[in-house]
NAD-dependent epimerase/dehydratase
Amino acid sequence: MSRFIVTGGAGFIGSHLVDYLVERLRAEEVIIIDNLSSGSLVNIKGHLEKGVARLVEADLVREGEWVKAFRDVDIVFHYAANPEVRVSTVEPRIHFDNNVVATFNVLEAMRVSDVKGIVFASSSTVYGEPSVIPTPEDHPLKPISVYGASKLASEALIQAYCELYGFKALILRYANIIGARSNHGVIVDFINKLRADPSRLEILGDGTQRKSYLHVSDAVEATMHLVASRLGAARGAEVYNIGNRDWVTVTEIADIVVDEMGLKSVEYVFKRTTPDGRGWPGDVKLMLLDTKRLESLGWRPKLSSRDAVRKAAREVLGKEH
C-alpha cells in the first residue's frame, strides 16, 4: 500500500507524518488535505517542490472537489482538527464543526471511494477526569471538555463505519504531543510570555497539574509501528493509547523552559481559573496513559517526558533543527 491521504498534513503532527511517509516509506503518492487555518506551507514546502507530495487546499467541513482525492487511496490519516482545547470553552461550535462534521465528511468520502483503512488522531481528553492512573483504553469515557467530546463523537462515527462498511481503523488516543512546528501548548505559551517579559511568567492554574508528554518523533514512530503491525490485521476499529511512561508538572516545564532560555530569577505568577487549580475549565489536571497495549507490540518511547519537554523547548527556540 503506497497511496495515502493526510488530512491536516500541513499541521504539527500531520506534517511530521508526511515526512515519514515521503522520506522513510517512499510512498507512491501522499495527498495533503488542509485548509491552512492552523497548518503552514512552510512545514511541507520541500515535499511540494520536489513533487513527492501534493496539496489539496480545502475545508473538510464543507463538501467539495476535495472528495475526488480519495479515489484509489490505500489509507487515510485523519489528523485535521482544531487542536486548541481552550477554544472549546468559549466557542464550542468550532470543535463540533472542525472535529465531528469534518470526520463525518471524511468517512463519507472514504465510503464513496471504497477506501477501507483509516488512522484517526484521537486524544487522551476522551477519558475526562480518570479514576484510574495510568489510564487504560477500556476506562470509562467521560470527557469534560467539548474538545474531548468531539473526539469521542468522532471515534463513535468511525466505529459505526467499521461495522457498517467494513472499514479497518486505528483510533489513536494521543497524550500531549510536543516538538518542532507546534504553534500552541504550554511550551510555546511559556516561551512567548518570557520573550515579552523575561522577569515574570504567568502560569495558568496552580502549577501542580501533572501530565505525560511525548515528543512528536516518538509519536510518529508509534503511529507507523501500529500501521505496519495492526491496520491490515485489525477487525473493525482498534484503540491504542500513545503516550509516555512518566509525567511532569507544569511548574517543572516552566523550570526547563527558563533554563533553556538562560534566564535567572524569573518570578512565577500562578493564575487560578478554577477552585482546584487546573489551567482552565475543562482542563484535565492529571493525565498519564497506560501504554501496555502498544508496548506489547514492541514499541518503546525514546525520550522521557522531561527529555521530550527539553528537546521541544530547544526546537521551538531554534536551538535544534
User: Anything to note?
Assistant: The mean pLDDT is 95. The two ends are 31 Å apart (CA to CA).
